[in-house]
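Record 1 of the preview.
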Amino acid sequence: MSTTTAEAQIKETVTSNPVVLFMKGNKTMPQCGFSSRVAGVLNYMGVDYADVDVLQDQEIRQGIKDYSDWPTIPQLYVKGEFVGGCDIITEMTLSGELDQLFEQNGIAYDKDAAAKIREANAED
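->
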């Protein structure tokens, strides 16, 4: 697979799925802590998302970094737009920004679960 093919495949994936997580492993068996954290948030919030295991394809693994101009995996896309990696998604979850992003884009998620994540992580 050439770079352009990898890029075309990535573009097709992020534009044809409302929510996509490029990760190491998959949503049921993440292969790294950062991927596990982001997948865990999405799973807990009941978000329907496509998962792409970058470990299965070296071209996609490098291609997604070039596509987003972001050096690390995981990478979350909503409605074709790159949202961020683990730290950004964690911050957005705790601040409520992720909820707003999902609402603005018509992505279904469990509001109670999102609130529980924030309660569990609230600093005294």
